[in-house]
Every structure is written in C-alpha cells, then in structure tokens.
Amino acid sequence: MLLAGYSRSVSAFQERQLSTFQRLSRRLVPRHPAQLIVLGFVLAIAAGTGLLMLPVAKNGVGGASLLEALFTATSAVCVTGLITVDTPVFWSGFGQAVILVLIQVGGFGVMSFGALLGVLTARRLGLRSRMLAAAETKSSGFGDVRRVLLGVLLITVIVEVALALMLTLRFQFGYGYPFIEALWHGLFHSVSAFNNAGFALYSESLMGFVSDPWVCLPIAAAVIVGGLGFPVLFELRRQYRRPIHWSMHTKLVLVGSAVLLVAGTVFITAAEWTNRATLGALPPGDRILGGFFQSVITRTAGFNSIDITQMHPVSWLGMDILMFIGGGPAGTAGGLKITTFAVLFFILTTELRGGTAVNIFGKRLSRAVHRQAITVVLLAIGLVVASTMFLMLITDFGQERILFEVVSAFATVGLSTGITAGMPPAGQVVLILLMFIGRLGPVTLGTALALRSRPVLYEYPKERPLIG
Q: Of 99, 121, 150, 220, which shows the fewest CB atoms inside 10 Å?
C-alpha cells in the first residue's frame, strides 16, 4: 500500500512537472506564422554564421570574425548581396558553397524549404507546416500548399539549370575556363541571379562582361523571372493564352514590371551616356545593353556591370526609387513590391479624378488593401529615414551614398557605392538589421495585417479634418 501510494505521488509530481514544462514551452515557442517565419530565418542566419566562421571557410590563416560571418550570412539568407569582404578572395571554395546554399534556402524561403523537405521525404505536411508555407508563399489556402511548393521547386530547377548551362558554355568556350571552373561559375551565378541575390565570384561583380550579351541577357532574364513572383508564374503557366482571365495581381505585376524596366533603362542610359567612368566609353549598342542590365538589376538583384561608385548622384537617386519599389510579391525579389506602389498610384489617380471607389482593370479594389499599402510604405519610409540619419551621425560619408546604401540594404538589392566595408561596426549592424527587416518585413507585416482583421461591433462618429 505504501509503495502504491508513493508511486501515485511520484506520478502526480511528474505530471505537474510536465504540465509546467508544457506551459513554459507554449509561452516561449511562437505560435503566429509570422513569428515562426522570423525564427526560421534567424536560425538559418545563425547556422550560416557558424559555418562561415570555420577556418576552412576562409582563405588564408584563421577564420572570419563574427561580424564578417554574420554580415555575409545575413546578406545571403536575405538574398541581398551586400558584402564587407571580397567574396572570391576572402572565402574559400567551402565558404562560397555555404553562401550558395544560404542563397538558395533564403530565396526559396526558410519555412517553405523546410516544408518542401517534408513533402519530398514524408510526402505529407502537418497543419503548422501548411500554415507557415502558405504564409510565406502567399498560397490561397492550406490545401494547395503541397502543389505550390512542388511548383516552386520545378520552376526553380528549370530556370537555374537552364541558366547554369548557358553560362557554363559561355565561360568555357568564350573565355577559355576549364570545364569544372566554368561549371562552378555558371552554377553559382545562376543560383545567385534567379534568387535575386547578386553575389558574384568576381571582385568587380560583372563589370568584365558589360559588353557581353551572352552573359548579361541570360542573367537579366533569370532576375526578371525570379522577380515576377511565383503566383504570377503559376498563372502564366496555366492561362498564358488568355490574358483576359489574368487576375488583377498578375496584370499589375506584369504591367508595372514592363513600365519600370523601360523607364529605368531610359533613365540610367541617358544619365550615364556621357559619363566615361561608366557607360560613356562604350560603343552606343553596349551603352544600351549596360543601361538595360543595370535597370533590371537595380530593382532587385545586386550585380553590377558598370562602376556604381562612379555614377552621377542623380543616377543614385533614381536608382534609390527603383530599389525601393522592387519586384513582385511572393518571389525572390526585394523592395516594397510593385503591387504596393501600383495600388497607391491608382488610389492617387482616383482621388484626383474625384472617384469614390478604386477600380483597376475592371475590378474594384478592396479598402483593406488601401490601408495595408499605406501602412507598409509609411513604415518603410520611416525606417529608411531613421537609419539614414543615424548613419550620417556615426560616419563621414555623404548623404547620397548613405541613402543609397540604406535603401539597397532594406530593399535587399545589394548594390553599393563602395562604402559598406568602410562602415564602422555599428553601421554594419544597422545594415544587417535593415537586410533582415527588408526581407521579412513585407511578409510578416502583410500576414499580421491579414490575420488581425476582425469584425467591428461599433463605429465612432465621422468627422473630416482639413487636408492640405
């Protein structure tokens, strides 16, 4: 009897301990999809930082410092491309391979990548995995997550393999690279291009290929495809012959991308046409190619075929705008996304015309989208302005260069006027935070805003303050 009573008391004590542990676990482990996505990216960056700090990841004696490894890992996972050390010189083959894996995981989405592994191994997904993948890929529902993930994988493999093959052939037969070196360069730049990362295996990025359309145009095409976003690619694959049935989202991304590509090409080419340090010393055809390539890259990726440090300040300002807008949602592009600014444009035109409802391509825009777009843009502007002012206080660089660097980091573009490595540690930490927020901000904020919507049981009296 005494033994039985003792056993029951021990069991009760273990149950109380277990219930206490479970309660603590529920409090410590985030449950909201946006919080879990952030945690996933943090863990991926931490793992990448640890690997890059290994002596084997760096050329020469010793390993990378914590800040060097953290900055590079964050830039790779957030598919940005900003660097504080010269990638082909500082990192060994192992370190470059780690960067490549981090780019692929970050471009696909950390949670989406984990869910994809679950699909490929267990061939099923739990509810939490479906929620996370749906939030990260902007899927319409939990039921189609598996199909979306496999579709993303298929598109990724097709584009990256095709581009890697083209670049490998060009490097081998056009520049005399040995096959293994040509294959590695082709694969690395293919993954970096499609994921809009902008990491390159050349100290001057792609400036050595400014006049080579066989390198610039395939890379630009991969950047454009990755920057459209997977929802647009899925819809084009299903209904490419029936534009009338395309959704408002697809039409906005396609039209906006075309307008920005043309406008960016004309602007950059015209602004740098006589600048002999960038486009001015090239033949006219190569100037147009260089302007087009930089227009494509500026909105989302971090390659450069001309010397960004020697560009005219007005070119930097125009590129700030292109970087801030970015590419399409739910893809590998950065920025605040084309759809966000397209919504604001149509709100503006409707207000100027005296309209009551915002209509786009024959459809009425939801008023909830108005508030979301305005919220995202205002928060982003506030963050960019505050970061620029802080960096102006702790550095001696000019405002134009600092603003360019801040926008490039926040929009996860990766272009630089050459001041990244010269930033003090506090400045580099600011850029790390900007890259992290820029990669996750639109996703997490959009998800949070969507899930916070709830019915309102009452309304306050309406009043109109004076505007303007």
A: 121
| Whether the Cβ atoms of residue 35 and residue 447 lie closer than 8 Å to each other | no
Question: pLDDT tens-digit profile of 63-111?
Answer: 899 999 999 999 999 888 899 999 999 999 999 999 999 998 888 765 5
Higher-scoring residue by pLDDT: 416, 463: 416
The structural domains of the chain, with segments of one domain joined by +, span: 31-450
Give the integer Cα–Cα distance in Å for 377 and 132: 24
Residue 29 CB neighbour total at 10 angstroms: 10
* pTM, to two decimals: 0.84
In the block, which residue shows the tokens 């980091």? Answer: 409
Nearest C-alpha neighbor of 335 from the set 300, 366, 384, 306: 300
**How far, in Å, CA of 134 to CA of 292, rounded?**
34
Rg of the chain taking only CA atoms, in angstroms: 24
Chain centroid to CA 2: how far? 65
Of the candidates 67, 61, 56, the residue with the CA atom closest to the CA atom of residue 98: 56
Question: In three state form, how does the secondary structure of the chain look?
Answer: CHHHHHHHHHHHHHHHHHHHHHHHHHHHCCCCHHHHHHHHHHHHHHHHHHHHCCHHHECCCCCCCHHHHHHHHHHHHCCCCCCCCCHHHHECHHHHHHHHHHHHHHHHCHHHHHHHHHHHHCCCCCHHHHHHHHHHHCCCCHHHHHHHHHHHHHHHHHHHHHHHHHHHHHHHHHHCCCHHHHHHHHHHHHHHHHCCCCCCCCCCCCHHHCCCHHHHHHHHHHHHHHHHCHHHHHHHHHHCCCHHHCCHHHHHHHHHHHHHHHHHHHHHHHHHCCCCCCCCCCCHHHHHHHHHHHHHHHCCCCCCCCCHHHCCHHHHHHHHHHHHHCCCCCCCCCCCCHHHHHHHHHHHHHHHHCCCCCEECCEECCHHHHHHHHHHHHHHHHHHHHHHHHHHHHCCCCHHHHHHHHHHHHCCCCCCCCCCCCCCHHHHHHHHHHHHHHHHHHHHHHHHHHHHCCCCCCCCCCCCCCCC
Look up tokens 């930490």; give the residue: 429
Amino acid at 441: G
Nearest Cα residue to 439 out of 60, 202, 109: 109
Residues 262-296: tens digit of each pLDDT: 999 999 999 999 999 999 999 999 999 999 999 99
Report how far residue 170's alpha carbon sits from residue 61's, in angstroms, rounded to the nearest whole number: 34
Identify the sign of the CA torsion 309, 315, 319, 320. Answer: positive
